[in-house]
Amino acid sequence: MLTTLRRALSSNPSSKLEQEVARKISKTLLNSGAESLQTMPSLLSSLNSQTVQLVLSNHTLTPETCLNFFYFIKKNYQKPDLRAYITMISKLYRSRKPDKLQKSQKFDEMRNLVNCVAVDGDLSVPVTVIASLVEGACNESKCNRDKFMEKFFDILFRVYADNKMFGEALEVFEHMAKKGLHLDERSCLIYLLALRRGGQVDSCLRFFRRMVDLNVEVTVYSLTILLDGLCNRGEVEVGRKLMEEAAAKGVKANVVTYNAFIEGYFKILDLGGVKEILKLMEKEGVASNVVTYTLLIHGFSNVGKVEDAQRVFDEMREKRIEADVYVYTSIISCNCRSGKVKRALALFDEMTDKGLIPNARTYGALIHGVCKAGQMEAAQMLVNEMQSKGIDLNPVIFNTLIDGYCESGMVDEALRLQFVMEKKGLESDVFAYNSIASGLCKLNRKDEAKGLLFAMVERGVSPNTMSFTTLIDIYCKEGNFVEAKRVFQEMEEKGNVPNIITYNALIDGYSKRENMKEAHKLKNELENRGLIPDVYTYTSLIHGECIDGKVDRALKLFNEMPHRGLVPNVVTYTALISGLSKVGKSLEAFKLYDEMKEGGITPDDTVYSLLVGSLHSANV
Q: What's the average model confidence in pLDDT over 397-423?
């Protein structure tokens, strides 16, 4: 390729034959256009790169005529070389006379040709070679060299950026800087944006620093692109320092900049940082926009600050800032997460009354709320409504409904929904399988649950910690500890880390089978792994010790719970009262009963029966 270019750049004059062929082609183009060349195969058989160059350089031909010829030969005969591309681009640039190619059209054509050069591997050469060809084109056409070079390399820089050819773009940028060509801030903005979208935040930061070093104009827009990237990956303080540096140079942050920091601070759960940014906005006189309020409502909702989210929503109303569908979706989701389904439904009605059209996320948030509240009829009504509006169910909503039906004990309805989902071409994921398997277990349909999880693996869906835990729990309840241990081992081998629920399943299984040695061994193991025993762990151990008749050990475990910050529940009390009753310790049993009631825990009928039984045992 470089050898060919050197030949192209040499000063060897064109042969008389090449000049004659070029003259005839030019005459044909002037008289009848490029398509008429189809009838002149003998003339075109003599076509070579030098002939093409002579035709494109002909000053009597308009840019439109040359462009038609360029595309004609490209399509029917030979691929133009790099010199031909640059000559054609030069001709489009220097054209000042009005013709069919208006200014915007000419720019589009120039950009299209530069793009062809950028993406064609056969035309890939160092930027210095391109610069030599551009200078040659300037000499031939006698156009303003510096202006054309600035325009050409600016377009090339943008095109490389758009095609994510970041190394090539940077090479062009450095060449322009070295040659003293004007570096356009808007083009630098395009490059920064391309880097940001490509996740190359470090390159973004280096390039921004280079812009500053070269005294390229830096605006709030280029600054914000960089800060958004830094905030997105949690480097909020680095971003704050940069913002302060820019402010000292007269580049003031705008609402988009501050929004990036608000989102960044929420991402690292730094609510103090969010508060600082809001104070800074107020100090600088930057008003919050609808995006700011959306981020605040969504952020407070995610960290469980429902009242703060509602306060922000109310403030937005007071300031007469119209909430859009995204704001309403965020506040609806917030209320649903906190169990305020009625409030969420009221907001949904308010939103539709304002003429706002709910989207799939809005319906998804509401459906999640009503499913969580066990209102499956309401969920189905919402599904019907969204489908009547042309919004189809997505995998997230299907999973929400499946989980809702399973939690409500309607597993067969969940299975039916899974079938519908798969008929629509949507594959069930591990979440759907886990929900159904868990639902089947609650209905004591353990064999079906196992079969479902085995089928899941056969269909290529990888089990996760919850899948393995469900299987372990089934085997423990069946008393098949060999299989439970095997699954536990397989789980670890496949990189799934056991959690407290996994250990609780094993501890509960061993406790109910009176194998307390193994149960306590597992408790020690989970603690060594950095896991913390919860109420379920202690309740299982207390129950096991009581079954084994070791009530004193059970009481020791019970008394250990407050020191761990754990509050016994009704199951814990019932297990211990049962153990005490069986060994005739009615006084201790009644003492626990009183303590239970004082703690606001309502005893059930089982507790009363146990207490009566303890009195009988004591009398005997």
A: 95
